[in-house]
């Protein structure tokens, strides 16, 4: 199994009042990719990190094999979700695959 962990911060211009809705949309659409993307076994969206965290949200996913990370990254369903619900509102992306 391969783990793919991504963390983001909200862009400074995102209003605090909008953050709960945006987090809910991100969670719903990212978690909905399970079953759509070959090799994607599990996906969990972290929308309420501890105060000691350096980022506002995280994606913790499990894929069958290392090569599936690239499949996931380029899959049209993932690209649509990322371009619609994540990238417009986030910055300072950090990623760890293992």
Report on the architecture of this protein.
This protein starts with a strand and ends with a strand. The chain is globular. The mean pLDDT is 98. The protein has a four-stranded antiparallel β-sheet with strand order 2-3-1-4, covered by helices on one side. 20% of the residues are buried. The protein has three helices and four strands; from the N terminus they run βαββααβ. The protein has a single domain, classed as Alpha-Beta Plaits. It has 98 residues and is an alpha+beta fold.
What is the topological layout?
Blueprint: E1 2-10, H1 19-31, E2 40-46, E3 57-63, H2 68-74, H3 76-86, E4 90-97
Antiparallel strand pairs: 1-3, 1-4, 2-3
Known CATH architecture:
2-Layer Sandwich
Give the count of helical stretches: 3
Class based on secondary structure composition and strand pairing: alpha+beta
Tell me the domain tally: 1
Q: Kindly report the CATH topology.
A: Alpha-Beta Plaits
Quaternary structure classification? single chain
């Amino acid at each position: 199994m391969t783990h793919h962990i991504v963390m983001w911060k909200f862009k400074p211009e995102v209003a605090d009042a909008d953050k709960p809705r945006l987090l809910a949309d991100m969670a719903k659409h990212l978690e909905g990719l399970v079953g759509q993307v070959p090799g994607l076994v599990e996906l969990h969206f972290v929308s309420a990190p501890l105060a000691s965290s350096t980022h506002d949200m995280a994606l913790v996913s499990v894929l069958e094999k290392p090569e599936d990370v690239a499949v996931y990254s380029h899959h049209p369903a993932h690209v649509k979700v990322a371009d619609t619900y994540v990238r417009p509102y986030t910055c300072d992306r950090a990623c760890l695959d293992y």
